[in-house]
Amino acid sequence: MLILTCPCCGVTGEETEFHQGGEAHLKRFGPGSSDDDFHTYMFAKENPKGAHFERWRHNNGCGKWFIAARDTVTLEVYGTYPAQTHEPPQHIRDAITARRPGWTWREFA
Amino acid sequence: MKHYSAFAVAREALRYHMGWERAWASPEPKKKYDVIIVGAGGHGLATAYYLGKNFGVTNVAVLEKGWLGGGNTGRNTTIIRSNYLQDPSAAIYEKSRSLYETLSQDLNYNIMFSPRGVIMLAQTEHEVRGYQRTAHANALQGVRTEFISPARVKEIVPIINLDGPRYPVLGGLWQARGGTARHDAVAWGYARACSAMGMHIIQKCEVTGIRREGGRVTGVTTNRGDIACDKLGLVVAGHSGHLADMAGFRLPIESVALQALVSEPIKPCMDCVVMANTVHGYMSQSDKGEMVIGGGTDGYNNYTQRGSFHHIEETVRALIETFPMVARLKMLRQWGGIVDVTGDRSPILSKAPVDGIFINCGWGTGGFKAIPGSGWGFAELMAKGHSPLCDEFGLDRFYQGRFIDESVAAGVAH
């Protein structure tokens, strides 16, 4: 059972209170962009065995979106932070490095 | 390979069963093979088998990081059906179902194919319309299915409760020649036949890297040394993204845990497979008498092979409403497998962006039923470069926006 803390309202709840909303930190490519960019944005998924960043919504709570850094193998939650953040905060990167030295996730490390 | 027969059983009975040999050999890896298949699950072994049988390619190694058939092949709920909506899906799944019909004879290994019939329950008006549409599509595709009334459902499955109240049974999509097979035996039968053709099945051999030269694959790095090859087939289900990473490309795939559970064994009470897709539960009775129950997928990517706890409650709650008698059953075991899900819920059987690499993945929650057909088509793709069964399932369909959308027809439960 995954236990997440919503950074918006501060409530800690189990996974049934939240809903996962796909990969985080996506750069969106819409009309006018190249086919390659659109294809990569739309379909090529990060599917790591290890640290992963995802959008979650506190849908049975405050209803706000946030980002969770989570491990897909151990289910450890490295931390959550508001959706308005453009890249993972340093303390979360450090928490991941402590468990998985040398990790990378798209352009982040 | 010694032939299995009634005579062989009698012969061994007379000499204390000392003459049985191992079903497949466990050789040391050679330095080089023509073809390496990564993943000794059903799909990987079936690919190797049809490479040898249909195309005479026998210098083949099948590498497995764990034990043979220990991934999703040994973790599914063994359902076989081909009542899909889209033409390319119906073609490959029906090919597969028809191969299952004679697979025991072809492999000389009893895979216990039991065409006991599969009902997909329609429990909402949308499902009634959806399944009527599927039945019409299947009629055009040459797949024998029919939409049946609630009374007929009750006749086939006497233990069902039609009234709901929340999800009444409004009808069902019935495929009489669908059913189940013994999942381990499918992997073991293919492995035995591959070994008999001289192929190498190498267990506990984990691929840690994929070697390339000038945009072409040259071999793999494993925990048992480097092995060279001309062609490489990746058939690793949930870990496809991980291996694609090693080869330097990305896939439109996300890996999630799908779980299943079995009850204590009881006397025969249901002689077909019932799937209830609206409530995410499906059930059949194994030959041992256990009720085999399939549940939902996790709502987030993971590689845990166990699944979220609350899904058990949701699945069981739904089944109790449809089958009140299971309320008194004790559950014996629960487990999960990592399924590789694509956006359109259809598989990927394709050349990879690296020359010489072929990828067979994305079977998501419904790969077991497709094992023979997938192996048949993928072997042809690897041997000849294209295959009528696989051509529609290429990676390029995402780039071209040419989806084979089974997410409505096949939903979650398989």
Outline the secondary-structure elements.
The complex is a heterodimer of chains A (109) and B (414).
Chain A: E1 3-5, E2 12-14, E3 19-23, H1 35-42, E4 51-57, E5 65-71, E6 77-82, H2 90-99
Antiparallel strand pairs in A: 1-2, 3-4, 4-5, 5-6
Chain B: H1 6-13, E1 32-38, H2 42-55, E2 60-63, E3 79-80, H3 87-101, H4 103-107, E4 118-122, H5 125-141, E5 146-148, H6 150-156, E6 171-175, E7 179-180, H7 183-196, E8 200-202, E9 207-213, E10 216-222, E11 225-234, H8 240-247, E12 253-265, E13 273-276, E14 281-285, E15 290-297, H9 309-322, E16 331-342, E17 348-351, E18 357-361, H10 371-384, H11 396-400, H12 407-410
Parallel strand pairs in B: 1-2, 1-11, 2-8, 4-13, 11-18
Antiparallel strand pairs in B: 3-7, 4-6, 5-6, 9-10, 10-11, 12-15, 12-16, 13-14, 14-15, 17-18
What would you call the shape of chain B?
Answer: globular
Order of secondary-structure elements of chain B: HEHEEHHEHEHEEHEEEEHEEEEHEEEHHH
Low-pLDDT runs of 5+ residues of chain B are 410-414
- Rounded mean pLDDT of chain B is 93
Query: CATH class of the largest domain in chain B, anyone?
Result: Alpha Beta
The multimeric state of the shown protein is heterodimer
Q: CATH superfamily assignment of the largest domain in chain B?
A: FAD/NAD(P)-binding domain
Structural class of chain A: alpha+beta
**Largest interface here, residues on each chain?**
A-B, 24 and 22 residues
Shape of chain A: globular
Approximate strand percentage of chain B: 25-35%
Q: Mind telling me the CATH superfamily name of chain A?
A: Folate-binding superfamily
